[in-house]
Amino acid sequence: MIYKKILAFSKLGLPDKLFFLKVLSVLLFSKLVVLLVPFRKVMPYLGRHNAGFRALLNTTEQEKAERVRHFMFMVSNNVKWNSVCLDQAMATAILLNKAKVPNCICLGVRKNEKAGKLDAHAWVLCGGTILIGGQRSRSYTEVARFSRDF
Question: Is the CB of residue 86 less than 8 Å from the CB of residue 123?
Fold first, then answer.
């Protein structure tokens, strides 16, 4: 299995290899932030709290967003740690911000009847669609959003 992953990585062109490593490093950074830094200290860096953002993207922005999405899935599915929605959403937003693509991190909750507690989820909106976080985000009630517009 590891051989197939190494072989797949070796077939990537140099720009894709470098972007893969960039996504990997940002995802690792985000995971460490989630584990080590209180969320209230992270909030100011995520974007404007509960503000709107430009949902329509031009072609270049759409291509950049899709590239980030593709590589985030590729990297997060191949790391040895448990990559969860919040660190993926934070890493995705960091990469989109660097590329100057408008985006919004959304945080939501829902009641888990079986466990008798609240479940939380994070997702990223970009170009009017859910870029990271999937369709399951629709079953959560949004409680906060942090957006960046360029």
Answer: no
